[in-house]
Amino acid sequence: MCAGERAIFATMHGKERVVAPLVRRFLGMAVAVPAGLDTDRFGTFARDVPRLSSALDAARQKVAAAFAIDPGASLALASEGSFGPHPHFPFLAIDREIVVLADRASGFELVGQHATASTNYSHRIVQNVSAGLAFAAGIGFPGHGVVVIAVRDGQPAPDMALTKDVADHVALGEAIADIIRRCGAAFVETDMRAHRNPQRMRAMARATTDLIRRARSRCPSCAAPGYVVSERTAGLACADCGVPTLAIRAEIRTCIRCDHRVEQAVTAAAADPRYCPCCNP
């Protein structure tokens, strides 16, 4: 994983537009997209192909598929996202993006990650065209895409009808009207495919930045990349009474190849008494 190497990127939805320039600039690697690689078989956000594994496993499957289609490639990139309720604020949606860089010969991989609540992930079941168009306007259509899906028992039914890649309001209105005529309602959802969702592309760029940070952080013992903070230890003493608090006392850096570990104290000498369970119970 050195400057001057070439990595193939397992994507068919234009993700290279945000990932490749960053990898090229900060890691010195050329990025190429192999022709004929179908990554939709590992799952789609349009719901026509269910994803049967975790986001990380799906990214690894894409890496394997890229290596299979280009036997001469030594490095491969892949990314995957997942969407759902925020773990602490379930009324908020959250986008989790990962970007994987893998070495064929050694099996060594780096995983960059980014999670954000800056996502338009949402849906609405509508029974008239105007409601569907209003929802689309609210999420930024046509700059952000939407998909229109049939409804069965109050749930999306892509096996009955699915319309994606809608270009304008006229086509969207026609798609909604058609599905309402057939099903009585339409499930209108934000299109979370990367090339149809600029917000997701921005999150992917942040995950790529995290990948680059990991790639540039080398282990002092074996020189492998990926030497980053793996855990944090609480217990920084209160500045007034000296009682341990929940404030971070130290960070532990771990090499993902040789398991070399170093604990480093934080720069703060003591914790603010506002965070002390005794001074401010």
Describe the protein in words.
The chain is of the alpha+beta class. It has three domains: 6-118 and 197-216, Maf protein, CATH 3.90.950; 123-190, Dna Ligase, domain 1 (2-Layer Sandwich), CATH 3.30.1490; 228-275, no CATH class. The protein contains five helices and 13 strands. The strands form three sheets. It has a five-stranded mixed beta sheet with strand order 2-1-3-4-5, sandwiched between helices. Strands 6, 7, 8, 9 and 10 form a five-stranded antiparallel beta sheet that branches. Strands 11-12-13 form a three-stranded antiparallel beta sheet, with no helix packed on it. Strand 1 (6-9), helix 1 (16-27) and strand 2 (30-32) form a beta-alpha-beta unit. Helix 1 runs parallel beside helix 5 (198-216) and helix 3 crosses helix 4 (169-183). It is flat. The relative contact order is 0.12. The model has no long low-confidence stretch (mean pLDDT 94).
What is this structure, in a nutshell?
By secondary structure, the chain is of the alpha+beta class. It is 25% helix and 27% strand.
Q: Please work out how many helical segments DSSP would assign.
A: 5
Taken together, the total number of domains comes to: 3
Residue ranges: pLDDT <50 for 5 or more in a row? none
Largest sheet: 5 strands, mixed
How much helix is in the residues?
25-40%
- Overall number of strands: 13
- Element pattern in H and E: EHEHEEEEHEEEHEHEEE
Structural class by helix and strand composition: alpha+beta
Strand fraction equals: 25-35%
Radius of gyration: 23 Å
